[in-house]
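HUMAN: Forgive my ignorance: could you write out one protein's sequence and backbone structure tokens?

ASSISTANT:
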Amino acid sequence: MARKGQKRKASPGDVATNRQARFRYDLSDSIECGVALQGTEVKSLRTNGAQLKDGYVTIRDGELWLHNVHIAPYQPASRENHDPDRDRRLLAHRREIDRLVGRVQERGLTLVPTRIYFKGPRAKIEVALARGRDRFDKREAIRSREQKREMDRAVREAFR
């Protein structure tokens, strides 16, 4: 169980996760991208984390750009701080970007950041191809999750 005041993370090495993405979208394929950050952004990620809830990725001029991801200002760097909501360039191989361009245009998918983590000294972002869910699909997902919980609870009670 998560302690009071701490957010629950998907895996121990994650800086931030987008738990809403799994509810709002059907995620299919994911890739790992580097991200071009300023020095204070890296320090802030190591201490505070980030907010990915409303984040999305666009493809502009053959480059991936990350939008609406909030990285809090780094407190000790009062004057030379970064803009918390600026657009950030993602670093990926050309063939990965070309493949994503084709899939986004062809099938009407979108790109959503699912988590930020450190791999060695570098910050990485996992970006997933996503298709938006309808309201009915969301209700169905909630219903099936609750049924699974009830079945697990019944099985535990039976073995007591």
The two ends are 22 Å apart (CA to CA). The helical segments are 19-24, 39-47, 94-107, 135-158.
